[in-house]
Amino acid sequence: MKTECVADISMNSVLAEYSRALYEQYGLLMVDTSYGGENPSIINTQEHLRYYAQKNFSRTAVSRVTNNQTIFSMYCGDVSITGSSFALDNKGAVLNRQIISYMGAEPVEGLLADVENNARLIQENALDTTDVGAMAAENQEAIDAIDLPPIINEYGEEEEASLANPADIVNSQRGIGALNLAIRDKSTISKATVDVNQYASHRQLNKGTGLNDGEEISPAERLLLEQYYYEKCSRYGAELEKSLLKYQLEYMIYGQHSDWGNLERMAENLLFWREASNMLYLFSCDAKCAEAELIAGVVTAIFCIPELSELVKYSLLFAWTFAETVSDLNILFSGGRVPLFKSDATWRLSLENMFAFRDFLNGGDLGEGMYYEDYVRARLFMVDLPTKTLRLADIIEMDVRKTAGNAAFKLDHCLDTFCAEIQVRTRYGYDCKIERIYGYEM
């Protein structure tokens, strides 16, 4: 009985040495096998287990003075850890299991229903595959391919004709970039950068022997993981002091080495989605199409080339779509709402205002729809789980390394479950072995 008690107490003592920084920031219970040093190893944990086992078999000071001994005079012989399970084993299954356990109290009913629905609508309506920018470029190539007839000037001389397409004013600004257009004050954007090669997703990972690393995740549990990301990680507009990279959700999506890079990719993604959505509305709005057709007719009337008028009309519609989309991004990055699909009531720019659209980038709110965070969560939902898990591991390492005594912290060396064998001997020549498996959820 005593040998079993000593084994239980000793292994529980090992688990009691969990990383405080990891628990305080992320609610996860794991033993950092570096113990604040630079050389993480299961051997370190084995020595800690040996120490606890030896201490629990040792006689007290009073017993030594009075020479009292146990009936068998037991002491600890060899100690070895024969099995282990680390945080990132089996594509991060151990980490995900702990997160799901941590989030167990969250209500699942209705959890992230909007996120699932938004992601589904984006995919079903091909917003993530409809490249409006490429379509606009193809339309422009068709315009450029038409040879315009020369015109006769006031002196009766032939001159090379110029189309003077007003859409060119807008279309020429595509190269400026979505983020540069959408956010006027660039000084508000975080300048934080990291060397991604130092983190879990870019290095050879430590692995255990496989004890408690099941990978089965139900749809309901996946929602718990998504909610955990949202609760624990920062994003643009909701930065956290503890974080190294300020836009952590964006990092989980794109994995770039800088906040600027991740936010830029998110802006480009938003531009892609919103252009596709805005095109669906604009090209189906008879009144707005008629406005573009009228201007196109005026612009091309002098050339008497019927197909040119149609191409210029679509050039104007593509430009209008782009201008409205940049306005949408400006609203989202300013904290306002933009619906996934536009209507007459939520379309913002008139055709006249489209030509000077940058003068109208002053934030606001369209009164309904999704906030920036909703678009981010929909995009994150579409990222495959193994990628999100490893990038979350990066984020955890970045943040824990900022805390005192954890500069070399590595999540893949954090122990969740272990199997140990403790050899017990007596001064009378008898011995036995006790084997136990202990973990935080065993």
Structural class: alpha+beta
Poorly predicted spans = 60-72
Can you give the mean pLDDT? 89
Taking all Cα atoms into account, the compactness measure Rg is 32 Å
Number of strands: 6
In percent, how helical is the residue content? 40-55%
H and E order:
HHEHHEHHHEEHHHHHHHHHHEE
Content of β-strand: 5-15%
Q: What composes the largest sheet?
A: 4 strands, antiparallel
H/I helix tally:
17
Distance between the termini: 21 Å
Q: What is the 3D form?
A: elongated
Task: Give the topology.
Elements: H1 2-15, H2 20-26, E1 31-32, H3 42-57, H4 61-66, E2 74-86, H5 89-102, H6 113-124, H7 132-144, E3 151-152, E4 158-159, H8 168-171, H9 178-182, H10 219-232, H11 248-254, H12 259-282, H13 286-300, H14 306-333, H15 351-354, H16 372-381, H17 385-400, E5 414-426, E6 431-439
Antiparallel strand pairs: 1-5, 2-5, 3-4, 5-6
Helix pairs in contact: 1-3, 6-16, 7-14, 11-12, 11-16, 11-17, 12-14, 13-14
Structure description:
- The strands form two sheets. Strands 1, 2, 5 and 6 form a four-stranded antiparallel beta sheet that branches. A two-stranded antiparallel ribbon has the order 3-4.
- A hairpin with a 5-residue loop joins strand 3 and strand 4 (158-159).
- The chain starts with a helix and ends with a strand.
- With 442 residues, the chain is an alpha+beta fold.
- It contains 17 helices and six strands.
- Helix 11 runs parallel beside helix 16 (372-381) and helix 13 (286-300) packs across helix 14 (306-333).
- 47% of the residues lie in helices and 9% in strands.
- Residues 60-72 have low confidence and may be disordered.
- The longest helix has 28 residues, at 306-333.
- The protein has helices at residues 2-15, 20-26, 42-57, 61-66, 89-102, 113-124, 132-144, 168-171, 178-182, 219-232, 248-254, 259-282, 286-300, 306-333, 351-354, 372-381, 385-400, and strands at 31-32, 74-86, 151-152, 158-159, 414-426, 431-439.
